Amino acid sequence: MHKTKEIDMLNPSFFKNPKIVIDLYDFDIARMIDKLDDNSRLEICNLLPDDKLSRIIPKCRCRIHLLELLGDRRSKVLNVMDIFYLKKIILKDNKNYNYLNKDLKEKLDDVINDGNQLLSFYITDRFLKCNIHDKKEDILRSIKVRRNNIYVVDDDNMYLGFIKISDLLNLKDNDLTKILKTHYPFFRSNDYVSKFLIINDKYHLEGYPVIDDSGKLLGVIDRRGIMDLINEELYDDYDKLAGLTHRLKYSDNDQKLLQKRLPWLIVAFILNFLLAMWLQMFRDRVIVSPFLVLYQVMILNIGQAVAFNTLGATNRVLEHKSLDPDSLVRFTFKEFRKGIIIAFVLSIITFIVLYFYFSITKKPIISDIFYISDAIRFSLTISVVMIIVILESTIIGFSAPIIINRLKLDFSLSSMIFVSVISDIFSIFIFYAGVYIGCGI
């Protein structure tokens, strides 16, 4: 494989030598593509065959935009792409699903509905490998990439272990078994990322070999590469949670920052302004009984917490599954059943806390003086309101992202702000209606 400096790829004359580009490692090409403008990206893509390009695109941060640049070639590249690479692409932008053939669509549906991420998605070809019978000088001469470990196989490509380059340099003969390390972990192609995270937390190696069921070396999991991809997904989730339409960069100017932050802030302002108008309807009630505001805050916060809890679970399901009507009904009843349990548990706690609080402080509630019956009545009313608000918030929490998803919008980005405001509107109405019916306040 060819080793070149990053500055080479930023030079237009670099693209005139197809052999150099094709011989580069996939990760090297992907990292360079991310730094280039669209014209230069297209020049690189035109030099690469479909199969190599299908391995490079998923490793690029600009992968969705890069696919759009390919035009008519997009379908060819997607249909030769590894299924687990393809899963990442489709989950990021489901418009690419339409470019797949029928068989690949069926296979992809099975993988997405599985909901787990296999390690095979993260296998890289950017590693050093040698045969157990190779000579020391030949191995050192073949090293063209900066790595600490060399993975050792036999004549049948069976994985034997790895050696450190520092140990190889100090080796006085050609017997690799003297420095071969065999007691470190490896993975199989059907292992999941969750297992990798547990093992990596203990060993922190630069890479981990991946073998098939017969023990043959398939490739290596690059620790830095897989952690970068996982962190990228987490950052995407954080951006959506914050209502950002695109990834913020330190180098962004004021105009770009406003474009990324303003859209959903404007939506939030409009919705919260409507919420404020809704609250004015209960102004007279607050003037007569100002202490209700204290319990209004408690009810609203509980309602939002339950709604966001359900929202998070629903978003996670929607990320991995395309819910058919039967699955949708089962998921709805499951979430509602959880909501009922949570509602009754919290309502019992609310009644006990409020009753003992008023019994100890002797503060008047409904009448001008304290009555124990008033304490029971008010505590019971707030508990019932709590049940209704939690059930209402649960329904909003799982229905809002499903509806937004049906409208072909990004449910992860847009559902949170709608859930927050809609939950508050219903919770306020339920709270004031409840205390009026239950206590006449």
Outline the fold blueprint.
Blueprint: H1 6-9, H2 18-22, H3 26-33, H4 38-47, H5 50-56, H6 63-70, H7 74-79, H8 83-92, H9 102-114, E1 123-124, E2 128-131, H10 136-142, E3 149-153, E4 159-164, H11 165-170, E5 187-188, H12 193-203, E6 207-211, E7 217-222, H13 223-241, H14 254-280, H15 283-288, H16 292-320, H17 325-361, H18 372-406, H19 411-439
Parallel strand pairs: 2-3, 5-6
Antiparallel strand pairs: 1-7, 3-4, 6-7
Helix content bin: 55-70%
Write the CATH fold name of the largest domain.
Tetracycline Repressor, domain 2
- Individual helix count: 19
- Provide the gyration radius in Å: 30 Å
SSE run: HHHHHHHHHEEHEEHEHEEHHHHHHH
Q: What is the overall pLDDT average? A: 80
Q: What CATH architecture label of the largest domain applies?
A: Orthogonal Bundle
Kindly give the count of domains.
Answer: 3
Structural class: alpha/beta
CATH class of the largest domain: Mainly Alpha
Shape category: elongated
Query: What is the CA–CA distance across the termini?
Result: 79 Å
CATH homolog superfamily of the largest domain: SLC41 divalent cation transporters, integral membrane domain
Low-confidence stretches: 1-7
The profile of the biggest β sheet is:
4 strands, mixed
